[in-house]
Amino acid sequence: MTTPDEHVADAHAPERVDDERQSALFLLRRLTVEVEAFARGFAEAHELHPTDARALVAMLDAGRSGESMSPGRLARELALSSASTTALVDRLARAGHAVRRPHPTDRRRAIVEPTDGARAEGGRWFGELNRDMLAALDGFDDAEVDAFVRVTTALVDVVRRHNGDATG
Predict the structure, then answer these.
(1) Residues 31-69: b if buried by 16+ CB within 10 A, e if exposed
(2) pLDDT band at 168 (very low <50, low <70, confident <90, very high)
(3) What is the rounded average pLDDT of the residues 96-112?
(4) Rounded to whole angstroms, how far apart are CA atoms 113 and 107?
(5) Are residues 166 and 94 in the same domain?
(6) How far apart (Å, rounded) are the C-alpha atoms in residues 59 and 98?
(7) Lowest-pLDDT choice from 6-15, 48-57, 63-72, 120-129
(8) Beta bridge partners of residue 22, listed in sequence order
(9) Which residue in 5, 21, 33, 128 has the most C-beta neighbors within 10 A?
């Protein structure tokens, strides 16, 4: 009898699957599930819809990269309609988690940013996890971390491509 994981792997995999590589993908999926459960705890503790919490993370990530988050970009990143994104941003603004600001160089556009309070609360919730995950990476040399970044980037690109295929 096959497990659900084996069935999924058999249904979509080449004839011979490298067990070590397949195990690595299953482990990555397990990490994703665990991180999502942790993030869901944040959403529940702060009475946020999971999509609202994902929106905050997207805004924080954009800010860390020195980029602005427009409502249109947020809609694309979360695969939401324009109307759903407007409702999401309105909810976050009413709850004091986000603000709309005029774009600094284009008056026709707006940007959406998390408030200082949302940043601080996110830091409190995710900071220790981030520190512990960084400490776990300290056990690996630079070449191993570089390989991890290359592998993870390649896998993220594959999933994004499949997400694009799924949404048309």
Answers:
(1) eeeeeeeebeebbeebebeebbbbbbbbbbebeeeeebb
(2) low
(3) 90
(4) 16
(5) no
(6) 9
(7) 6-15
(8) none
(9) 5
Residue found by looking up tokens 């400490």 in the block: 135
Query: Residue 137: CB partners within 8 Å, gap ≥ 6?
Result: 145, 148
Q: Of 11-15, 90-94, 99-103, 164-168, which gets the smallest average pLDDT? A: 11-15
**Is 2 inside any structural domain?**
no
Distance CA 120, CA 128 (A): 13
The verdict on 15 and 26 lying in the same domain is yes
- The type of residue at 53 is A
Question: Looking at residue 58, which CATH number applies to its domain?
Answer: 1.10.10.10
Residues 93 and 126 in one domain: yes
User: Is residue 59 domain-resident?
Assistant: yes
SS3 102: strand
Quote the number of domains for the chain: 2
In contact, 69 and 113? CB cutoff 8 Å = yes
pTM: 0.75
Q: What is the sign, positive or negative, of the torsion defined by CA atoms of 47, 93, 128, 138? A: positive
